[in-house]
């Protein structure tokens, strides 16, 4: 650990020692009449510089572990300034006491310079903390804008998928058959189809929606798909806790992904399960990949992963195990 520290900071430490020694000679010439005095003054100044420079740098990194610049910028800035002021005053006091105990006494000139050094250090510290605050704030804005763009693209893609000719053709084809077979069910089909389109359009400008809204939409979408495929498709939803937020159309995109990429037939029905598991909502289906599948696997999943990387510290997990494809998206707190 010590060797790693020296290896990482050796160059900086040497620069600080050389700079502190040079300053000691040129600023305190009157105090450096002997080698002994010059040694003590240079050692004191070097220790001060190294402790202030490296100590404040490590303190800043340590505080960032507990207070994130992106999610808690004001707290991080305030605590950073207070922490560095306390550290600077404390470490300077300790260094002075240590050198005094070793026999080195500050003269009036050195004491005045020590005060100036502390003041300058505090000014530089506040400047660097403010600079870090502004840089991270700017990066947060960039990330937020990127998240908005990713979300807009995802919503557009989902809208495009919903209104594309294939979806419309399949829906109208299923409706045509229903009109002759079951008029009441045909009316329900039309109502659910309108609900799907209404939700897609209404959520177009939203980054997050409540899980309750998403589940209401999902009921309509599942109704359409089960009418279309009949007994060949079964989608079970086991979500009882309706508290939390979700990216709009996320669950629908995962179900659509399962329908698009897997065989759905009388002798090979597709079962899709949607359920809550700890801090995630999960969509699971048995893998039976189509032989004539287009080269688009992963595009929708990647989009969901990118969207959630901006709104959650928990990752979207994608697993392929025991013949099942499982995707879990984090539950976001309102």
Which properties best describe this structure?
alpha+beta; 11% strand; single chain; 2 domains; 334 residues
Note the beta-strand portion.
5-15%
User: What are the low-pLDDT stretches, counting only 5+ consecutive residues below 50?
Assistant: none
User: What gyration radius follows from the Cα positions, in whole Å?
Assistant: 32 Å
CATH second-level architecture of the largest domain: 2-Layer Sandwich
In the CATH scheme, the class of the largest domain would be Alpha Beta
Number of strands: 7
Total helical segments: 9
Major beta sheet, specifics? 5 strands, mixed
Shape: rod-shaped
Query: What proportion of the residues is helical, as a percent range?
Result: 55-70%
Strand order of the largest sheet: 2-4-5-7-6
Q: What's the N-to-C terminus distance?
A: 43 Å
Order of helices and strands: HHHHHHEHEEHEEHEE
Number of domains: 2
The CATH topology label of the largest domain is Heat Shock Protein 90
What do we call the CATH homologous superfamily of the largest domain? Answer: Histidine kinase-like ATPase, C-terminal domain
Helices and strands, with pairings:
Elements: H1 2-27, H2 35-66, H3 73-101, H4 108-163, H5 165-181, H6 183-202, E1 209-210, H7 211-229, E2 233-238, E3 245-246, H8 250-261, E4 270-277, E5 280-286, H9 299-311, E6 317-321, E7 324-330
Helix pairs in contact: 1-2, 2-3, 3-4, 4-9, 5-6, 6-7
Short description:
The chain is α+β, with helices and mostly antiparallel strands and 334 residues long. It has nine helices and seven strands; from the N terminus they run ααααααβαββαββαββ.
């Amino acid at each position: 650990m010590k060797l790693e520290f020296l290896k990482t900071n050796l160059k900086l430490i040497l620069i600080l020692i050389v700079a502190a020694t040079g300053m000691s000679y040129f600023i305190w010439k009157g105090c450096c009449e002997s080698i002994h005095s010059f040694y003590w003054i240079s050692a004191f100044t070097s220790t001060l510089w190294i402790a202030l420079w490296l100590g404040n740098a490590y303190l800043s990194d340590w505080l960032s572990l507990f207070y994130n610049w992106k999610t808690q910028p004001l707290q991080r800035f305030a605590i950073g300034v207070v922490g560095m002021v306390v550290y600077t005053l404390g470490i300077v006091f300790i260094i002075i006491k240590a050198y005094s105990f070793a026999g080195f006494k500050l003269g009036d000139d050195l004491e005045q310079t020590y005060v100036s050094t502390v003041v300058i250090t505090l000014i530089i510290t506040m400047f660097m903390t403010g600079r870090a605050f502004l840089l991270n704030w700017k990066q947060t804005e960039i990330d937020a804008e990127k998240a908005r763009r990713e979300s807009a693209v995802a919503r557009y893609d989902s809208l495009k998928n919903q209104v594309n000719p294939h979806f419309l053709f399949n829906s109208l084809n299923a409706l045509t058959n229903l009109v002759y077979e079951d008029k009441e069910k045909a009316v329900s089909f039309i109502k659910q189809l309108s609900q799907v389109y209404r939700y897609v359009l209404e959520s177009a400008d939203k980054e997050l929606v409540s899980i309750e809204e998403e589940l209401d939409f999902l009921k309509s979408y599942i109704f359409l798909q089960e009418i279309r495929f009949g007994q060949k498709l079964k989608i079970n939803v086991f979500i009882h806790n309706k508290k939390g937020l979700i990216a709009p159309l996320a669950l629908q995109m995962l179900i659509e992904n399962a329908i698009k990429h897997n065989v759905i037939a009388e002798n090979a029905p597709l079962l899709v399960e949607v359920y809550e598991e700890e801090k995630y909502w999960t969509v699971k289906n048995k893998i039976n990949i189509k032989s004539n599948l287009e080269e688009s696997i992963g595009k929708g999943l990647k989009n969901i992963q990118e969207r959630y990387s901006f709104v959650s510290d928990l990752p979207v997990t994608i697993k392929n195990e025991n013949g099942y494809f499982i995707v879990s998206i984090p539950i976001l707190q309102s």
